[in-house]
Design goal:
Helix content of chain A: 55-70%
Number of strands of chain A: 11
Order of helices and strands of chain A: HHHEEHHHHEEEEEEEEEHHHHHHHHHHHH
Oligomer: homodimer
Largest sheet of chain A: 5 strands, mixed, barrel
Low-confidence stretches of chain A: none
Radius of gyration of chain A: 24 Å
Mean pLDDT of chain A: 97
Shape of chain A: globular
Strand content of chain A: 5-15%
Strand order of the largest sheet of chain A: 4-5-11-7-6
């Protein structure tokens, strides 16, 4: 019933008009000219729309089933997975030596958005594998890389991340899974992990579990946690599959959404594993991948918002209900389409201006990751580390709200599973929760990232906004008024909030932490404001240069104006909440709630 | 897994300390002394917690099933329904002559909150019957009342409302269901209705459908719509059941939530019906019940928020994760409970301050309905008509957000159906949609209610706020600063928004309509601000009078301070959005979205 159309034109606009990727001095970016990226995006859009999206509702309805230790994925998933593999999509941004195509991360992200929007649950199998492969790439020995990466880059073997246990999620120091060293250098892993996405399924020959565990006799708490490679089937020296390892999926969880992905309870009963990276440095190994993984989840917030928006837009154009108060727009029909009504417009513009701003923010973030990795640029690394919790927390919160708004356009029909709008909402909900619940993102932002390296990354961000505003002021009165002034005002609110934390968080950290969530949202709005200002500038430049597609660029400007006028005023509210401090937040004894 | 505890103490506080019901000159209020209402609330709380809530998850998991035209409700529903009937709960606020207990609507609402919080889907069977009975009470002939009301008040027969058709929801003028007059004064009803809650089920001997239809040959559009009584089984003159009527449930919808309620496609194939009220005045008959029905749905927003909050609070107190940054609170345990963390507090306080403010708003609204009906007080009627879309739209939007926040406290466990938090979210979602989607509430508020009777009801509201602030200023510095000043500021924002609509809506109604949704939320915040100021005042009075339970009242003050400091600043954002006008909202051609 639903459709998905990849926004290739919008992605191209961001890559070339806004980020100007092929002109950047990042290794691998020179080849990213519009024809090249256009061809990739078109192809990715095609498989997303034609292969992955038609399976989205199937995955939701059928779900995954555990039968005698085997997990059966929904009808059609395996064939589609094979098609994705054959197209070379799984290794797009992986090194050539392991079978990848070595493209920049920004391209992996652009393509990943389409796949995930088309089918969130399905794309997780590939996404988790990418994450696990990245960890092996960063921390594995040469032998580990040679053994696992070619298979994982091709997704012949998939990967998982095993962190959570029944009694601990965020606080991994409480972990009980243990690793006993063996004479041959391997470990016996014993314990139970929960919420393991893609933990068991029928689409790959082997599943490579990365498992956090404590080596027996090691330090207490988080400092004693190490990371292990624990394959479902042991791998022989020649690369062929050996014995079944002592691990099993004990249960599949019934969830609110993403039914097409198997969320497993994984039981390790003395399973054979090998240390990945250093002893007791498991958290460091996990953190290496954190920026990418969290950016990927932020992306998922945008993805469900976009596919839901596209379908809400179709409905708003087709569904005839009521009349335009300023005069009938469809006088020969029984009623006007929903889209004539101002409040439906408000709803759609909220969605559209968020989605396009978010896509800009996401691809900017991905380009910073490329710069951090490929240029070993510390400033870019610091900036993207700062922005990562904002991308994850803000885009998933607003993405969820946006998806709910899209569902609302359908009225009662949005509540019926048949239209597919409920699935978008139910699927979008997970992104606010996993990979660090959004409250944890806010804590990471305010408790760690803000003050990192003496606060220089947040200062760099403020400079970036200030310089952008300065460099682009005075050229166009309307641009100054509609874009730069609101951006400066919003950025000032963010600075005031940061100042409040500095002045008050020292005496009592609760004054900062009680405002952390609002700070994350305030920061997100400023980032989207910045992206809209950048997009507005790019649109003006294209129009001034006599583009052949003026409507596209005028629409960008109009959408940006909407964001600036109607979304950015949220910064004042967040600032007021922040500056009310911790007193009202912490006033009650727990017993008096 | 979940629990529900009726907030009887809070309801009592509102009825007696804040609304001071037994001192009001409303017929039937004098008997509402604290002992009397306390006994009713305790008993209602008991059945809610012990009978209805344990069936909440059962209803979600089992759902309703249509087999050979018969709808089977979930296990245990019938027995619980019988228990509710035997307790006399179904006729609490219905006239004695039809078997009711003639209590004020405010008591029906207080009790209804508990029932609906305990089990939303279950309570709808009773709620729909109440709505249909109210319509017959208001518009039925003496014979119709005598025939249907005793059975419906007792819920031996249940009722439904049939408005929506596949191609029309809000725009009922497009309706196709037709009524052909018969020689005996009855009509033959033919057409299809959808989204009929409780349309068919196995808990009652008969189902009385109220069906909107167009009498053949009558006026076009909404002016030709009439309301009909169409029973599932025809009723003989002696009150016994006669032949099966020509109507049937064609399908049960698969929905996002409220699975325990059967949402039916109803097919009428020349079914026998009788006119209820006047010919072509069907909409007027529906509107009579609208305030009550919409207030009831607003209540449902609060209900799911409350039950979700209660369970999130339990989890926050029990789940050990991380340490209080200002020093361990549970040093002998492996970690501190979640509730020590400022961001968890922020989350819980957002929920708590909303829920308690919303409950105050709801019961105030219900008391205005009593005054409007029992005292025939036109001012009260006008005021509650104005506030009704705010109660419906604001409480269900914020109620949903609050429920989502409660789910968030559970982290990954909140996404798993087993904990029950997902069901609260999925169930809460419907209240934003049915009984007029919230965009329609905003339209009703700004397009109709605001200017009704020359705008005198909104002026009365502003006077009410102003007078409250004036009468209570200067007695307590902290109260002035923490309650009255924020309230005045918020009310000023609301007035400025109203002024903007007046000045700009004349030239172009889109300037008002594009801000309607924000106005509804802005209005809602001012109402909750007013309620918190009233609650704060009541708490101060109780403390000054030397209450034996100072903690309860101090907690009220602290919670109110939170609302004023942290929720009320939203008014500035809504005002800014409103005052940006319609230009950015309406800028795009439909084709350019």
């Amino acid at each position: 019933m639903t459709r998905y159309t990849a926004p290739t034109k919008d992605t191209q606009f961001l890559l070339h008009d806004v980020l100007k990727v092929s002109g950047q001095d990042v290794p691998g970016y020179a080849e990213l000219d519009p024809d090249f990226t256009g061809a990739i995006l078109e192809e990715a859009g095609k498989i997303s729309a034609e292969v992955l999206h038609p399976l989205n509702a199937v995955g939701d309805t059928e779900g995954c089933h555990l039968e005698n230790g085997v997990v059966r994925t929904p009808t059609g998933f395996k064939a589609a997975f094979d098609q994705v593999k054959e197209g070379g999509w799984t290794g797009l941004d992986m090194p050539e030596e392991f079978g990848g195509q070595n493209m920049p991360y920004v391209m992996g992200t652009a393509v990943g958005e389409y796949f995930s929007a088309a089918n969130h649950a399905f794309t997780m199998y590939q996404g988790l594998t990418h994450g696990a492969a990245s960890a092996i790439l960063a921390h594995g020995s040469d032998q580990q890389k040679a053994t696992y990466l070619p298979k994982m880059v091709a997704c012949d073997w998939t990967g998982t991340m095993n962190l959570t246990e029944p009694h601990c999620g965020t606080d991994l120091g409480l972990m009980r899974t243990r690793a006993e060293p063996q004479a041959d250098g391997s470990y016996k892993i014993t314990g139970q992990k929960i919420f393991i996405s893609a933990g068991e399924h029928d689409m790959a020959d082997n599943i490579i579990h990365l498992v956090l565990a404590k080596i027996v006799g090691g330090p207490e708490g988080i400092k004693g946690v190490s990371l292990f490679i624990v394959p479902k089937f042991l791998v022989n020296e020649d690369g062929s599959l050996g014995a079944r390892n002592a691990l099993a999926c004990g249960k599949i969880e019934e969830k609110m959404g993403i039914h097409g992905n198997s969320t497993c309870v994984m039981n390790y009963d003395g399973a054979t594993g090998w240390l990945l990276g250093e002893e007791h440095k498991g958290m460091r190994a996990m953190f290496t991948m954190m920026n990418e993984a969290r950016l990927g989840v932020g992306m998922q917030g945008l993805c469900q918002a976009d596919v839901a928006y596209q379908n809400a837009l179709d409905y708003a154009k087709e569904r005839l209900q009521g009349r335009d108060v300023t005069g009938a727009k469809n006088p020969d029909g029984p009623a006007d389409p929903l889209i004539v009504h101002p409040d439906i417009r408000r709803n759609l513009m909220d969605q559209k201006s968020f989605i396009e701003g978010a896509r800009g923010f996401l691809l900017w973030g991905a380009s910073l990751i490329d710069r951090a990795h490929r240029n070993e640029d510390k400033a870019a690394d610091g900036l993207v580390s700062l922005l990562t919790p904002v991308i994850k927390g803000f885009l998933t919160d607003k993405g969820y709200d946006s998806t709910v708004q899209a569902q609302q356009v359908f009225g009662g029909h949005g509540y019926i599973e048949e239209t597919g709008m409920s699935q978008f909402t139910r699927d979008a909900r997970i992104a606010q929760i996993y990979e660090g619940a959004n409250g944890v993102q806010a804590l990471d932002l305010v408790g760690r990232k803000l003050a990192a390296d003496g606060g220089k990354h947040v200062m760099a961000f403020f400079d970036l906004v200030k310089n952008f505003a300065k460099e682009n002021a005075g050229q166009d009165e309307a641009f100054d008024r509609d874009f730069l002034e609101p951006l400066k005002k919003a950025s000032k609110d963010l600075q005031a909030a940061g100042m409040y934390f500095m002045q008050n968080g020292m005496k009592n950290p609760n004054h900062a932490l009680a405002g952390s969530y609002d700070f994350m949202h305030l920061f997100g709005h400023v980032c989207l404001g910045l992206m809209w200002a950048r997009m507005g500038k790019a649109a003006m430049e294209a129009l001034a240069a006599g583009t052949s597609d003026p409507e596209f660029y005028q629409t960008k400007l109009a959408t940006g104006r909407y964001y600036m006028a109607r979304q950015l005023p949220a910064t004042g509210m967040h600032l007021a909440r922040i500056m009310s401090g911790a007193d009202t937040v912490m006033a009650l004894e727990a017993a008096n709630f």
